[in-house]
Write a structure and sequence with these properties.
Layout: H1 5-19, H2 27-32, H3 43-46, H4 59-66, H5 76-80, H6 87-95, H7 99-107, H8 113-119, H9 126-129, H10 131-136, H11 145-159, E1 174-178, H12 182-193, E2 197-201, H13 210-213, H14 222-234, E3 238-240, H15 251-255, E4 262-265, E5 271-272, E6 285-287, H16 288-296, E7 315-319, H17 323-334, E8 339-344, H18 355-363, E9 367-370, E10 372-379, E11 385-398, E12 404-408, E13 414-417, E14 420-423, E15 427-428, H19 432-436, E16 461-463, H20 466-469, H21 474-492
Bound molecules: flavin-adenine dinucleotide and iron/sulfur cluster (2 copies).
The site of one iron/sulfur cluster has 15 residues, from helix 8 and helix 11.
């Protein structure tokens, strides 16, 4: 239950009433409407449960927020969206009270609006280009595009109005999909729509990729991901879990002996990177992937029922500044840590995490130790973590990424007491498929090489998402899956 819902609802109703006839509103009046805050659990309440933090706009809030849109003819917001959703058109539909039309517009381009409305780094995409934010000189004050997207997508899902898309008559062609993250889900839906038989092979016991095992329940409820997967099943997509392509069966055999005509590899970037410093093998050091998977996929937080334990720690240090680091830090709080310290070698301005996650982490009490980097993890006589030796940094010249590089300050070492260290400094591509499929060429970083049609060096095998891009975003992965599906459908029609 949102702690601020009643107040926000009253304010939205009053705001709408004050606007009167909205059909004749002019731009200066629209830019004066303040962005609607999101109903949410208070920081004190939410760190004691795994429930979702941000709880979504009500109808009045969505209608008022939609009135802020200036309907810019050049659609700069759409330019900022990786899949080019026609944002002014869907926002106008919400402003006019036609939510069904709004979701139909979004679904022309996005297959996962409930997910992207929640987790897209909007302030760096659609909201970054929004004129309203530009006028306010702050992308966070733009039209709240993702919140509106979430509002209509949730409304459709909760009403049961969503129908599986129509599937063309059977073509007799069979397509194998490796993995079930957003890239694969999007690919599978579009290829199935064309009438091809589709089988998804997923290594884990649950589908969804990072949406299921990485991003925590308090940011993305798993029921939403399950609903998307159910939608694929309803279209006739077959899903085989606990099937590791490259171990259970090589990809070449699926395409040869098993009679698949084409394949898509969406195996993601789930290989954790470590710091390569002394002490990383001590008891109490985890990769963020393992830590989050225990909690999200194995439900370790539900101690009475879960068969997977979690590590009880009082003082937790999380290394990194991205979404994965924020998720790990906020999960540690919910698992009972008394103190959670985020250790990052640059400053907050360089953190790659979504602005909302940084804000939420701070509200919840995560301590930010910026311009710091560990040089050694130390343990006791039983090899259990007791602390970290940390060096202070300052910012030097910009590096290849354009961000100022951190430079160590000699003699600035200090010790941080901690009984658990979670390493969240990035992930590399899952190596198994390229390793076991000699015809598929990876680049030096292990990412699968594809051409402009998303086809790998092996004919009729397409790839997309993090396995091609390196660790990226949900919307980019979904967009890649759709582009690869277009190419695959064209090939199968030859
Ligand atoms: P994945 O989602 O990684 O899915 C790959 C799937 O393939 C997995 O299910 C895996 O088990 C399966 N697989 C791998 N190898 C095999 C095999 N050999 N056989 C069968 N199956 C296999 N992005 C955002 O946009 N916003 C966020 O807020 C955000 N937060 C994140 C938080 C965390 C903790 C993490 C880890 C990532 C986050 N990301 C976020 C990134 C985003 O989730 C990924 O970019 C996206 O999920 C990539 O999708 P994908 O389909 O390429 O791969
Ligand atoms: Fe913005 Fe993401 Fe939606 Fe595109 S998909 S409009 S970037 S929230
Ligand atoms: Fe509306 Fe902003 Fe897009 Fe302009 S840029 S159409 S104000 S959402």
């Amino acid at each position: 239950m949102a702690d601020n819902l009643a107040d926000l609802e009253e304010a939205a109703r009053a705001g709408l009433a004050a606007l009167g006839d909205v059909s004749s509103l002019k731009a200066p009046q629209r830019t004066k409407i303040a962005q609607r805050p999101m109903p949410s659990q208070s920081a004190g309440a939410r760190i004691r449960n795994m429930g979702e933090v941000a709880l979504g706009y009500t109808e009045s809030m969505a209608r008022l927020e939609a009135q802020r849109c200036l309907q810019c003819p050049a659609k700069p917001c759409t330019t900022g969206c990786p899949v080019k959703i026609d944002i002014p058109r869907f926002v106008k539909a919400i402003a006019e009270g036609d939510d069904a039309r709004a979701i139909a517009v979004i679904k022309e381009e996005s297959l996962l609006p409930s997910v992207c409305g929640r987790v897209c780094p909007q302030e760096r995409q659609c909201m970054k280009e929004c004129t309203v934010g530009k006028i306010a000189k702050d992308p966070m004050k733009s039209v709240a595009i993702g919140r509106l997207e979430r509002y209509v997508a949730d409304k459709e899902r909760e009403s049961g109005a969503a129908r599986p898309p129509q599937v063309a008559p059977p073509t007799g062609k069979r397509v194998a999909v490796v993995g079930s993250g957003p890239a694969s889900l999007a690919f599978a839906a579009d290829v199935r729509r064309a009438g091809h038989e589709v089988v998804v092979f997923e290594a884990l016991h649950k589908c969804g990729g990072v949406l299921s095992y990485g991003i925590p329940e308090f940011r993305l409820p798993k029921a939403i991901v399950e609903k998307e997967v159910d939608g694929l099943r309803a279209m006739g997509v077959e899903i085989r879990t606990n099937f590791v392509v490259g171990r259970s069966r090589p990809l070449a055999k699926l395409l040869g002996e098993d009679g698949f005509d084409a394949a898509f590899v969406g195996s993601g970037a789930g290989l954790p990177r470590f710091m390569d410093i002394p002490g990383e093998n001590l008891v109490g050091v985890f990769s963020a992937n393992e830590y989050l998977t225990r909690s999200n996929l194995m439900k370790a937080f539900d101690e009475k029922r879960a068969s997977t334990p979690y590590y009880h720690a009082k003082r937790v240090a999380v290394l990194g500044g991205g979404n994965v680091a924020m998720d790990a830090a906020r999960t540690a709080l919910r698992l009972g840590a008394e103190k959670v310290m985020l250790v990052y070698r640059r400053t907050e301005a360089e953190m790659p995490a979504r602005a909302e996650e940084v804000e939420h982490a701070k509200e919840e009490g995560v301590e930010f130790h910026v311009l710091c980097n560990p040089v050694k993890i130390v343990g006791d006589e039983n090899d259990v973590v007791t602390g970290m030796e940390v060096l202070r940094y300052e910012l030097g010249e910009p590096d290849a990424s354009g961000r100022r590089s951190p430079v160590p300050v000699p003699g600035s070492e200090f010790t941080l007491e901690t009984d658990c260290v979670i390493v969240a400094i990035g992930n590399s591509s899952n190596p198994l498929v390229p390793q076991t499929t000699p015809d598929i060429e990876p680049d030096k970083k292990g990412r699968i090489v594809v051409d402009e049609n998303h086809e790998t060096t092996m004919r009729n095998v397409f790839a997309g998402g993090d396995i091609v891009l390196g660790a990226a975003t949900v919307i980019l992965a979904m967009g890649e899956g759709r582009a690869a599906a277009r190419a695959c459908n064209a090939r199968l029609a030859e």
